């Protein structure tokens, strides 16, 4: 009876953590369908309405290192529960807030809550599972995140039929998840004196591989948002203007990512992390070139699926690598910096590719993005070759 109860508790905690993992992708996606409603009903400019959806990324990225330190200092349960509560209350405030400055303030507070959610759920999963089981759980996490990228915008769109305020109600999910998290058992952590450590100096000492992981995370996220931002424009050039049709392309990316994520354990049993990341960048190179050079709609549809397959490999690989490379006492800080790198890539992507698109063309933008993916892949290949040569010698 006790064994059954323990197993139920573990599976229940896993369900909470996987659902919590979808909340960061929900953070902006759930509001995307009501951007136009904000503009028409409240008179917001396109930029002002867009900031409501994206400004949380700034506070998330800036708060990340402090959040990581708190997780290392206190463990995951209490910071994660507090973050989920802040996520739910600050996010749900949009149900009643009318003032634009106050709405932006709540979104910034919401971003801090989202930083706790990302770091807390990821570290707890890394702490709970090791070896092949960790690979399996991280594959499930990747699948959950990608499915959230499909489901939450649909929920937001359905609620948006009521009013532009209504989708903010979805964020209240953080409140019951906070209560469930608070009831989870604490995981053993290093002693406080060890957990405090020496900040990033202790984290990176003798671990240059972590910097490489963060660089890859930033590049991967920048490429992803290049697709999300410029694919609709490229499809318009190919004669696809229906929002439903564009949504099908975006959904195919998430579906492919989810499918590969569910099979990640099998892939990982055959290929090491560097090989999987090399495959991801190769897929992205081919996909981005296909989107940029395509003369018909069918090829970009296949290409977007290939891009999603690469994401399905890269997301769990980079997360597991972070957990493996970081000392347990600094795993919170390492994971928080992974989030900072990802949201940094998200922020920089339109700044990098937007002016390029304006100065040249959308076609050229995808070709340059493919070149970036290919150059990164070749760098990974060179690193892999040197490592194997040293091992051979």
UniProtKB/TrEMBL annotation:
It is a multi-pass membrane protein. It is found in: Cell membrane. Keywords: Cell membrane, Membrane, Transmembrane, Transmembrane helix, Transport. It comes from the Bacteria. It holds the Pfam family MFS_1. Residues 13-388 form the Major facilitator superfamily (MFS) profile domain. The keyword Transmembrane helix applies. The chain crosses the membrane at residues 12-35, 47-71, 83-102, 108-126, 138-162, 168-185, 211-231, 243-264, 276-295, 301-322, 334-353, 365-383. Its main location: membrane. This is MFS transporter. It comes from Phytohabitans kaempferiae.
